[in-house]
Amino acid sequence: MADIYSVFNVHTRKVIAEGFDKKADAKAKRDELCKDSHDKWAKKVKEEKDLAKPFPYIVVKGSEHPRVL
Q: Which of 50, 22, 42, 46 shows the shortest CA–CA distance to 30?
């Protein structure tokens, strides 16, 4: 399995999950990890309309991505 995409924690600055061939698979894992913060955001956004959706986990290029040096 190629390591083209990984899921990265913004706060701890560590890779949480790696080894995804497709970006969609990595995004699915990211959404699964972000579920708690998105649920909290959904409750708060009712009061504060301009509140940005939090993404504590993001998808980044893995070690075997063709554009990684």
A: 22
Cα–Cα distance for residue pair 19/65, rounded to 1 Å: 10
Quick check: 54 and 18 in contact, CB under 8 A? no
Read off the pLDDT of residues 25-62 as tens digits, 9 standing for 90 and up. 999 999 999 999 999 999 998 888 888 989 999 999 98
- Residue 57: strand pairing partners: 9
What dihedral do alpha carbons 11, 14, 60, 49 form, nearest 10°?
-20
Name the pTM for this structure: 0.81
Beta bridge partners of residue 59, listed in sequence order: 7
CA dist., res. 57 & res. 39, Å (int): 15
